[in-house]
């Protein structure tokens, strides 16, 4: 409810896809300049910026929340607002999600939202995580993840909700659902999303061992669809997008729905219980202790 209220308030306050350039009001301007301005629009919030090209119907969402694009409540709220606005804009048919930060796509859920927080805060946070997943996994747009850095846990989940994943081929980057390494457990809908992509057995091993894969390994198991050099990432994403957009929209959307609806329905039917499970699990002393140890390890590794 809090997320929905925040969404309503923020939507009302902020103009999203900004209006076409007002340059034509200032005397004579080149027609192509006006056209370009009308065809592109930009929206920026503190953690997300969106470039929308009306001539292609494709928006690029840049995650820009230093240091690691962790998925905090604020980040998720902004993310969902941006997504909802794009979804409502009938001229937007495709979305590419990428990171503006070097080396990191997204570090996954913000651990500080789960550590030392009240049950109420944990519950609100979890609802926002659910909302992000639901919106992305059932989006009518073609969604492409352009993964230009590490993408553990919630970052991997975000990528998995997209229709197509392209990752930069840098062995320093990794991707996977590594929750067990933090002493926590990926919920059933994280598991379902991964199993729908790479199959049951690979998911079983990957989750149990908290596996993080290099781009080449991720390609091998089908966790990502393509790996490319950094400089080719966006052009490859645009090419993939064009291929998906060439399919008649209703046929593509119905197919997506047919493939994903059972997973979405399972989650939505258990949504409340899932929040309760999360809150009671994450606030346990033993789990809080595991998160503390993991946070300390992250800090030590840095030192
Ligand atoms: C019975 C069943 C019931 C089930 C109920 C549900 C159970 C709970 C389910 C919860 C699911 C959780 C999903 C998640 O996504 S958990 C998050 C997992 N993420 C990680 O493990 C990633 C950790 N981070 C890293 O590995 C690296 O930071 C990274 C490779 C991403 C980048 O490395 P880099 O060297 O560039 O950056 P630093 O490590 O130095 O990090 C910079 C600072 O950022 C802080 N940081 C990093 N990641 C996070 C994060 N996820 N949340 C919060 N903060 C993070 C890091 O500590 C550094 O901070 P300081 O600058 O203050 O030191």
Automatic annotation (TrEMBL):
Please provide one cellular component term from the Gene Ontology annotations of this protein.
Answer: mitochondrial matrix
Biological process terms in GO annotation: fatty acid beta-oxidation
The protein's assembly and partners: Homotrimer.
Stated EC number for the protein is: 5.3.3.8
Organism per entry? Hippocampus comes
Native organism taxonomy: Eukaryota, Metazoa, Chordata, Craniata, Vertebrata
Question: What name appears for this protein in its UniProt entry?
Answer: Enoyl-CoA delta isomerase 1, mitochondrial
Q: Which UniProt keywords apply?
A: Acetylation, Fatty acid metabolism, Isomerase, Lipid metabolism, Mitochondrion, Transit peptide
Catalytically driven reaction(s): (3Z)-dodecenoyl-CoA = (2E)-dodecenoyl-CoA; (3Z)-octenoyl-CoA = (2E)-octenoyl-CoA; a (3E)-enoyl-CoA = a 4-saturated (2E)-enoyl-CoA; (3Z)-decenoyl-CoA = (2E)-decenoyl-CoA
Pathway noted in the entry: Lipid metabolism; fatty acid beta-oxidation
Q: What is its EC class?
A: isomerase
Pfam families tied to this protein:
ECH_1
InterPro entries in the record: ClpP/crotonase-like_dom_sf (IPR029045), Enoyl-CoA_hyd/isom_CS (IPR018376), Enoyl-CoA_hydra/iso (IPR001753)
Give the UniProt family note: Belongs to the enoyl-CoA hydratase/isomerase family.
Q: Which GO terms describe its molecular function?
A: delta(3)-delta(2)-enoyl-CoA isomerase activity
């Amino acid at each position: 409810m809090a997320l929905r209220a925040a969404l309503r308030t923020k939507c009302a306050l902020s103009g999203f896809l900004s209006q076409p350039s007002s340059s034509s009001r200032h005397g004579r301007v080149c027609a192509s300049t006006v056209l370009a301005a009308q065809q592109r629009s930009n929206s920026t919030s503190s953690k997300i910026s969106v470039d929308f090209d009306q001539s292609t119907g494709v928006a690029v969402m840049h995650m820009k929340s230093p240091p690691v694009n962790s998925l905090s409540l604020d980040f998720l709220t902004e993310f969902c607002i941006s997504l909802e606005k794009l979804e409502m804009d009938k001229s937007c048919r495709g979305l590419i999600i990428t990171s503006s930060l070097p080396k990191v796509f997204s570090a996954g859920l913000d651990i500080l939202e789960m550590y030392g927080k009240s049950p109420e805060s944990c519950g609100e946070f979890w609802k926002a995580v659910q909302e992000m997943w639901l919106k992305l996994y059932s989006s009518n747009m073609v969604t492409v993840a352009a993964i230009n850095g590490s993408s553990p846990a919630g970052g991997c989940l975000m990528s998995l909700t997209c229709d197509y994943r392209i990752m930069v081929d840098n062995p320093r980057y990794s991707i996977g659902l590594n929750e067990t390494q933090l002493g926590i457990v990926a919920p059933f809908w994280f598991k379902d999303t991964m199993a729908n992509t790479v199959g049951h057995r690979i998911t079983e091993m990957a989750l149990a061992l908290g596996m993080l894969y290099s781009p080449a390994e991720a390609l091998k198991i089908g966790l990502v669809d393509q790996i490319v050099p950094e400089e080719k990432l966006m052009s490859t994403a645009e090419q993939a997008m064009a291929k998906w957009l060439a399919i008649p929209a209703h046929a593509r959307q119905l197919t997506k729905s047919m493939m994903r609806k059972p997973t979405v329905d399972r989650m939505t039917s258990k949504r409340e219980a899932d929040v309760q499970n999360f809150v009671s699990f994450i606030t346990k002393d033993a789990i809080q202790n595991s998160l503390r140890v993991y946070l300390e390890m992250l800090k030590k590794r840095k030192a």
